[in-house]
Amino acid sequence: MAYGKALLQPICGPTIDSALLLFGSQIYNSLSPHSPQSPVNPPTNPAIRPPRSRVRTFSSIQENVDYRYLWTGNLFANCAQWLQFVTIGWLALDISGSALHSILTVAVRALPVLILGPWGGVLADRYDRRKMVMVVQLVMVASAVVFGIMVALDKVDTIWHVYGYMLISGIGFAFVQPLRQALVANTVPKDDLGNALALNAMAVTSMRLVGAGISGVLIETVDFQWNLFVEAGLYAGMIVLLIPMKMPFREESKRRRTSVVEDFKEGMGFIVTNANLLRLMLMNFVRTGIFMPLLLFLPAYTQEALGSGAGVSTAMVVVMGAGGLTATIVISSFGFFTKKGLVTLISLVSGSSVILILGLSQWIWLSISIMLIMGFFQTHFIVANQTLIQTLVPDSLRGRVTSVWHYESGLIPLFAALTGGVGLLVGIDIAMAIGGGTALAVSMLFLIRFASIRSLD
Predict the structure, then answer these.
(1) What percentage of the chain has pLDDT greater than the value 70?
(2) What is the value of pTM for the model shown?
(3) Domain 59-243+260-454 carries which CATH code?
(4) Smaller CB count within 10 Å for the chain: N or C?
């Protein structure tokens, strides 16, 4: 137990009063009905936490067993999502022969977020978040198994079957993403939040490596249905891991229960009246519009601009994951190199510059290597942006605010269709360069004008 360990640590030079405070705090916690094991009122006093070393990469996992369950479950779920991401893009290309369908079938997964995302956030603030995640993951297991059987029996003979599967998957995605994000703050104390979110991003980036790698191997060696069966098994793994998990840092709302519409209005009102929160959301909107569709274009980009196939596009995804993984290790071990607000602005400018260069590149080695930089800066942006938002929002509104952050991903199909349409006219690489240049101009404007964000930490 963390508090027992604190008393066993050698006391190097504290005052007698400090030692008595530690001893008295331990006795009080052991006798209190709301002891550290109780989920009702978890202790947050950093004075009685065990001393930490300078490098604390995995401290949130080591010190919080419930976050350990959640983080491991997120490894499974993120691996499944990245495996699906690569698989469906190539399955659509194989069935239709169209690069546009390859992009849009993956992008359509984000479409239900536009309708269901905010209401999922309302439900996340009203009901048990852990149980809701388990139910949604069960639906995703069933849909992956059924679609895998259809592929195995050669029943997927039209591209619209692929769109249908991704639409069902997108409905689950609309609910589960803000739920899983909100659960992070419910399983660690506030002073561990930055480290926990960095490790959460590590789960995403590391599984980009594993999921994309598994997908590429299975596509080349067996057939598409095995990707879907593995995806279902990974979702099932998260369900099992959430069974023993508790939410010791969930704060029960003391406000009177109102209608879902009033709850929705309250969440939106909180965002629009908080200037810094609104600016952080706007910055994430730019990232969503320019950075996120990038992966959708990789099959078409590698085929048209680089004259290559699945091996190169998979390598680009894997290298981007390596850059993101490097960023999460740096952040979780040493923190950010400057104030978090400034990190978000610098990362947005840097990532936009990378996409501009990528769109102009005609060399495989440059396109692959520059994805490392892309992954590094995008992960810095995500972790810093999310940490600031989760710190600014009370737990009673966490689900609604988080769902708005993820709501912007529902616009990915629109951005993908826009860039894909331009790509049909001038080429997908030039379309990417145009998008990167536009994002760079907007990001530079943010860097100059958002003084309050630059000073935010």
Answers:
(1) 86
(2) 0.70
(3) 1.20.1250.20
(4) N
